[in-house]
Amino acid sequence: MLKILIADDHAIVRQGLKQIVTETRDMTVAGEASNGQELLNKTKEGEYDVVVLDITMPVRDGMDVLRQLRSEKPRLPVLMLSIHPEEQYALRALRAGASGYLTKESAPDELVVAIRKVSSGGKYISTSMAEKLAFELEVGRDQALHETLSDREYQVLCLIASGKTVTDIAQELSLSEKTISTYRSRVLEKMNMKNNAELTYYAIKNQLVD
Q: Rounded to an integer, what distance in angstroms lies between the CA atom of residue 112 and that of residue 110?
């Protein structure tokens, strides 16, 4: 029986994922967490076979939690779950040590398959993402501007390009507006851009946002 730990800050999402898992005979949801720190605490208190981890969560961001899990529990498979398209976060998540990446939109159809794949030591990504990953790994490919950003800077870039204000982003990431403004300044500086309009144009052109 595979023991699954689900981390998502929305109870309704956790319930939906739990329902999918419990319909499978050889899996059970052995734990739930509503934020990143709670998840880390649970992995220290108990043993699990797979972690299903939302990227955007309060207290501790999913990517931050992933890195700590890789350090503390290197053999524990982590399946990243997100509302964001694969193009935005899948490559970063895999590079950070995730065993797979699944969008919430595809979860009803693919969650069980993805859990089985990562629990057996494999990696789970869609076919289209596999093609993109192969391209990204080509030797000699020039690094795109957004690839110079830290995970948090990249997250702020995507949210700005989605039309969200500094206040909106601060609330979503549970950070202060001053901190978000600092990240925005760093993004503009690293990408040699002047304003949100330029950032948005770049993000749309490079398919970082819908």
A: 6
What are the b/e assignments for 57-82, b being 16+ CB within 10 Å?
A: bebbbbbbbbeebeeebeebbbbbbb
How does DSSP assign the chain, residue by residue? -EEEEEE-S-HHHHHHHHHHHHTSTTEEEEEEESSHHHHHHHHHHS--SEEEEESS-SSS-HHHHHHHHHHH-TTS-EEEEESS-HHHHHHHHHHTT-SEEEETTTHHHHHHHHHHHHHTT--B--HHHHHHHHHHT-TTPPPPGGGGS-HHHHHHHHHHHTT--HHHHHHHHT--HHHHHHHHHHHHHHTT--SHHHHHHHHHHTTS--
Spatial separation of the C-alpha atoms in residues 33 and 10, rounded to whole Å: 10
| Mean pLDDT (the chain, rounded) | 89
pLDDT score recorded for residue 130: 76
In a shared domain, residues 197 and 115 = no
Within this chain, do residues 19 and 107 fall inside the same structural domain, yes or no? yes
| Rounded distance between C-alpha atoms, residue 76 and residue 50, angstroms | 6
Lowest mean pLDDT among 10-14, 94-98, 132-136, 177-181: 132-136
Domain count for the chain: 2
CB atoms within 10 A of CB 200: 18
- 181, 190 contact by CB (below 8 A): no
Structural domain that includes position 180: 145-205
